[in-house]
User: Which sequence fits this backbone?
């Protein structure tokens, strides 16, 4: 395993410097770019005593391997996924009603990054993925997440069905998004401790995952398309929970 990773893009690099500065070994900036956004990143680097190296656009292109780096790449120590034990300790210490997002087999890094961004915006406490058959943290995920990869715990579990059962034993209710469900999303009570489960692109939830859901719910689809992109659907579900939890009447 490599002893370093690359994080690129202004939002993602800024988030690393704000939330995990000790992991940042060095910044590589494109020569000649001077503007307020880049200066903000440089100021953070100086604040945390991170070395800055000015390089050519071609050098950054090679490190980003086709990604859009926006003129800045951070060289960081490898990211660490959360374990099930870490998730358990976090839930033990929560002083608010848990809200978790589970992604069952989402393999597209752009979708994982977008789901992390939505989870952060909705105040979800963690995103859970299976260790196998799933996208994981990568420069693309961090770039799409716009900093959320540094603020929302990403928990990788060996057996997703077992994890869902353990969460149920803790008092969380598991709601699976499924187009064939009879119940609408808006009929589900999300004011209780909740786990929202989204299936893989195209194939949906696996059978065992579906069997471990307390409820299945669907989004009302009024147009010609039969389903939404998984990251869009996750955002709709998460913010329905937010709506219910923040309404005053």
Assistant:
């Amino acid at each position: 395993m490599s002893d370093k990773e690359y994080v690129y893009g202004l939002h993602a690099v800024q988030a690393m410097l704000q939330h995990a500065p000790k992991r940042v070994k060095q910044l590589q900036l494109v020569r000649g770019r001077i503007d307020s956004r880049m200066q903000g990143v440089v100021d953070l680097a100086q604040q945390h005593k991170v070395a800055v190296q000015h390089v050519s656009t071609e050098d950054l292109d090679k490190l980003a391997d086709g990604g859009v780096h926006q003129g800045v790449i951070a060289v960081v120590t490898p990211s660490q996924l959360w374990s099930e034990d870490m998730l358990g300790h976090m839930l033990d210490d929560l002083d608010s009603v848990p809200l978790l997002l589970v992604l069952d087999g989402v393999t597209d890094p752009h979708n994982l990054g977008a789901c992390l961004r939505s989870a952060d915006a909705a105040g979800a406490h963690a995103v859970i993925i299976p260790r196998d058959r799933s996208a994981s943290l990568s420069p693309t995920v961090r770039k799409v997440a716009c900093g959320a990869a540094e603020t929302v715990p990403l928990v990788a579990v060996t057996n997703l069905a077992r994890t869902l059962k353990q969460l149920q034993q803790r008092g969380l209710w598991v709601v699976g998004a499924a187009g064939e469900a009879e119940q609408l999303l808006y009929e589900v009570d999300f004011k209780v401790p909740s786990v929202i489960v989204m299936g893989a692109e195209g194939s949906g939830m696996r059978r065992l995952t579906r069997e471990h859901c307390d409820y299945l719910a669907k989004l009302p689809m009024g147009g010609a398309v039969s389903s939404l992109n998984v990251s869009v659907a996750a955002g709709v579900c998460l913010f329905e929970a937010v709506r219910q939890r923040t309404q005053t009447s």
About this structure: The mean pLDDT is 91. The longest strand covers residues 24-30.
